[in-house]
Amino acid sequence: MSKPHIVALGGTSRPESATGRALAHCLALAEARGARVTLLTGEAINFPHYELGCTTDDPRIVHFVSVLREADGLIVGSPGYHGSLSGMVKNALDYAELLRGDERAYFDGMPVGLVATAGGWQAAVSTLAALRTVIHALRGWPTPLGVAINTGPGAGGADAVGDASPQLGTMVDQVLGFLRR
């Protein structure tokens, strides 16, 4: 494989969110290791509610699905809202249903790194577990290491993403290593 295409999706509607920063950090690491990268966060994934069986000509959704089709690996990140992934991230992942009829259905056989950020360990860890369940349902292969980041007071706050850099690097290496095999 020449230059693998790694796509990061998730975050919040705020570009400066901890999750968005963590995803951008992961992509910077992947790019430094020779990957092509695409970040889908904020307005790029803030879609109308998904409805099973829908078809769409919304250019944002068409672009989103096109980028997912071109991806060799994914990194999915979500803030922990009340102990689980955000509605915006789940809704974006629901649009992966539009890939079901593709030669590679959903994320079949694709390595997927996972990142969860929250203002406490309980929400970060439970969000990570929820992300893993959703990615399994979409036939993706979550990396052995998923990264939970506690952004709460006294736990790193604004520096929490930087503090997690070694773990994020290991996760990115696992995504890229899977593709080299």
TrEMBL record:
Entry keyword annotation includes NADP: no
Entries under Gene3D superfamilies matching the protein: 3.40.50.360
Domain of life of the source: Bacteria
Keyword field: Flavoprotein, FMN, Oxidoreductase
Pfam families per UniProt: FMN_red (PF03358)
GO molecular function: oxidoreductase activity
Keyword Oxidoreductase listed: yes
Record's signal peptide: none
Residues annotated as domain NADPH-dependent FMN reductase-like: 5-150
Family named by the database record: Belongs to the SsuE family.
Name listed for the protein in its UniProt record: FMN reductase
